[in-house]
Every structure is written in C-alpha cells, then in structure tokens.
Design a protein that fits this description.
The protein is about 55% helix and about 0% strand. It is mostly helical.
C-alpha cells in the first residue's frame, strides 16, 4: 500500500501570510518530488482551499485556473495577498519596541527579529 506522504493545508487569507505559505508550498513540492508544472498546478489548486480557489477562478475568468501556467497562478495570488508595507512605518515600529516585563530574552530576540523583517535592514 502506498503512503500518502506529507500533507499540506489550505491557505487562509484572514490568518496566513502568502509569502510564508508559498515558501512552504515550494518545500512541500520538494518533499513530495513534485517537479512537473502540470503536477504543481494540480497540487496548488487542490490544496489552497475553496475560498482561495474561488478567488483565483474569478481572477482567471473566463479561463479556468488549470489553464494558466504555475508562475502565472503564483503571480496572481502574490498580487492579491502580498500586502505592501510602508518601510518607514515598519522601522518606526521596530525602533519603538521594548522588552515586555514578562518577556524572556529569547522571546524578545524573536520578536525583534520579526519586527526587523519588513525594515529592509542590510544585516541583523
């Protein structure tokens, strides 16, 4: 009997970050040895969930998403879900951060690293 292999969950636009999701999707393709463009399209359309598929179907209308290339589908989804950030606002948020009283050093470090992601600093 064949093993199902690793699973991959749907994208939730309310809670998930599209950039992170698409990076994980690429790793899932590597783990499942999914290399062919048609296979990648089929997997993407199967795992993204009904809500995201419906949106993608609307974006590709009158064609079906399956008739687009994998890079085209990723570009449509990236354009839809990638939030443009104001770099200055992100830097201000970073500079204004301070360690909370109940936050240990590891938690503080992780939070600062997360805040720095959208600041476009050269190195951290």
């Amino acid at each position: 009997m064949a093993s199902a292999g690793p699973t991959f969950g749907p994208f939730n636009p309310e809670t998930d970050d599209w950039t992170i999701y698409s990076e994980q999707l690429e790793q899932w393709f590597i783990a499942t040895k999914t290399n062919e463009p048609k296979e990648k399209i089929a997997c993407l359309l199967s795992v993204i969930g009904t809500q995201t598929y419906t949106l993608l179907r609307n974006l590709t209308f009158p064609e079906l998403p399956a008739n687009k290339s994998f890079p085209e589908l990723l570009k449509l989804l990236s354009t839809q879900f990638s939030i443009p950030r104001n770099e200055w606002k992100e830097i201000k948020k970073f500079m204004g951060a301070s360690q909370a009283a109940d936050e240990n050093v590891q938690e503080w470090y992780a939070r600062i690293k997360k805040l720095a992601v959208n600041c476009n600093f050269e190195a951290i």
